[in-house]
Design a protein that fits this description.
- It is a single chain.
- The chain is mostly helical.
- It is 55% helix and 0% strand.
- Helix 2 crosses helix 3.
Amino acid sequence: MTINKAMERASRLRSDPYDDETKAGWLLELEGRIREEVVEAHEGAAAGEPVRAFPEDADRPLLAGPPYERVYELYLLCQIDLHNGEADRYANSVRVFNSALDAWAQAYHRRHMPVPARYHRNVF
């Protein structure tokens, strides 16, 4: 999944007044959270340059790949509903998004070893 593809898929499902830069910003924010909260807590996190800019990185693959890539499209739908003030629709969208994100994170945890904890020894 790329930024462009996620925006295209979300636009097919829900019309919105937001420009591509706004939607790409939402996706970059999510990508940063995924990298910081999940990927960097596991070994091998340094592999690959992060997607950081739009439109420069718009066609580079994002972290959550198949079969979990729909998480980006779902996040856009959540943000659209939130910013449109559609509370009921947002509540449903965010539930579906959180479920998809949790499924991806669990799969990531199963495939990657966590970074060993750094414990401090009591020196006294």
